[in-house]
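Subject: for your reference before the review

Hello V.,

The reviewers asked for a structural picture of the protein, and I figured it would be easier to keep everything in one thread rather than splitting it across files. Below is the amino acid sequence we used in the manuscript, unchanged from the supplementary table.
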Amino acid sequence: MARRAIWLPCLVLFFVLRAGAAWSAEKKVLSISVEGNRRIEADAVKAALKTQVGGGYSLPLIQEDIKALFALGYFNSIEVHGEEKPEGIALIYRVEEKPIIRDIEISGNDEIELEKIQEAITFKKGAFLDLNAIRESVKKIQDMYVDKGFYLATVEYVLRPVAQTEVVVEYRIEEGQKVRVRRITFIGNKAFSADTLKKTMETSEAGWFSWLSGSGTFKEAALDRDVSMVAMHYYNNGYIQVQVMPAQVTLSPDKKWTYITIPIEEGQQFTLGHIDLEGELIYKKDKIMEKVKSTEGGVFNRSQVQEDLFNITDMYADVGYAFANVTPLTRIDETRRIVDLTFSVQKGKLVYVNRIDVTGNIKTRDKVVRRELKIEEGKLLRGADLRLSRQRVYATGFFEDVNFTTAPAKEAREEKLDISIKVKEGQTGSLAAGAGFSSIDRFLFTTQASLGNFLGLGHRLSVSFQISEIRQIYSVSYFVPYFLDSMWNFGVDLYEAETRYGSDYVKKSRGGSLRWGYRIEDFTQAYLSYRYEDVTFTKVRGVTSAFVRPGITSSLSGTIVRDTKDHPWETTRGSVESITVEGGGGVIGGDFDFVKCDTAGTVYFPLLWKFVFMLNGRLGYGMGIGGEPLPFAERYFVGGVNSVRGYYYRTLGPTVRVLAYDGDPSSLTTSFTIGGNKMVVFNSELLFPIIEQAKIKGLLFFDAGNAFGEAEAIDLISLRQGWGVGFRWFTPIAPFRFEWGFPIKPRPGELHTVFEFSIGTFF
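And here is what came back from the structure prediction:
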């Protein structure tokens, strides 16, 4: 390989003055020429120079030029020659360019896909050779193998010249064998069993199913964290003087297994004594102490003390003291094994917002992020507003990640902060076509084009059609969340659908809706909607047209929704409550006069180990006007994946006996579900991660619900119940649901297991 010239004092001596004259500070530069360059334009070289034609020259300036040229990263060596003439000096920069990387080859990889290794390489084909980048990529590839448990993997690079100015970079990988953990041993543990301490660790012993789950893999970085986690377990249980020594790792002779030993000196267990508060208090002491959950007489818990500290800090930040400093002061009584705790508070100065910068939004316009913010430039910075702003930006669904960082404003006083909002845009648009199988639709074909962030304005546009064994649906929808940059939103939907409900009837509907909405406060919006729908029924089995009547529905509805979920799909905390009142007919026309009221509520509770518990409830009531029953097209039907699982779609609720064949009085009768004018549904779910990297979660559920007719009262005892298991896959396009429901006390004719599959939103 070409050598790199030494460019400090030794290289400067390479200056050669033809005719042997001494350089003078009074001489000027007559010309600058570049020699030896092949790919780099001479003008690009000259642009990096401080020495310019017509200006003076000096050795210090030439030294700076040489440094600047090497900093470009294009050259192996640089020589500067000067020719003195009566009018001045002619300078010649002779460069030797680095080779170009023609190709990158990777060999020896079996356990890691080629594409993933290529992503770790920090340079591309066609770039100038950079040994630092090559070595950096070696380290990244090795780290990838360590993360997968191939602790002994080696990665080497070879530079293979293929032309005078081109090379091939080859990475040669020897993966070796994955190193697993045979045994974890603790020495000196008396207060807690080895099994208890192992549960605090990411590192685990290899078991029968380690080949499937990946458990039992040895990772040095994870083991270092585990030592800290074991110590934290002791700290959180009162052992404040515990010493957990660095783990001792022994490799088996065949280099397949590791044996881990962790020595521990436990010390004594301490309890909490007196808890107090001092310093600059902005509220009465009792009010601030409400944020402290540590209790006198309880076992000292470091994590709880840290949480108390954060709670007090947040309390001060919420009123503008972003730099409030809360220090836990402890006094240890070793004789009584008691720790007295005092939180000392210095509130600092009120902090204001200086600048707000948004970065990472390539497609999305700044205003889409800024209009969700509760913080404003020049206003007091409140911690609650900062947290709420992040939640609202995330809730748009346009971004995979949202990070808020603060830094002291350079051009302002210390009590002003610049806020940087860095977002990572997610996949907000999709074009998909495919065929599949649904528990409701059977075989289906679907095509959907959606733009969740249309033109980068946050508008939502969707066009889709779906054809299956039981339904055909064509729809177009458009939604503007901030109409004309106001707090109003606007949406329009158009659709045409044909659905077959078993052998009972076929429903055809065509129509659309217009809706206006207004944001009342941070999480609450109100909507006013108009719906127009033309409904016909065909192939109605055994039911007179007097009941299953076609016609036009024209209705107005008002809705209030409060949504505090932390994520549209992968929710871990928060709730959604809504109430809708709808009226049809009368002065707004249509063939059906009715009134309906629907209310729903869903709440999410985060539990230990990333478990999430969900409760959902829905109530509905409707009535026809003028003594008429609620129109058939508006009635409530229960059962299926979005109501009571374990029962087929729309099979629960009031039924009537009808003739199996119209016009034949001697035919047998059959049961026909007519739906109810009242509906009650309850759902509960426990969700837990299965494969976090793939965003696959498992769940257990219990549902109860039913529909009731005009002549019936709501009877909670008669609610039909079901339970089951399933899993959900949160893909970039939409969430997929796979659930197996089991009815409790099934009736004759009802299946004992019902499989449900669907794509889209949940309750």
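For the response letter, the relevant points are probably these. The chain has six domains: 9-97, 100-174, 180-265, 271-346, 352-425, 482-759. The first helix runs from residue 9 to 12.

Happy to draft the paragraph if you're swamped.

O.
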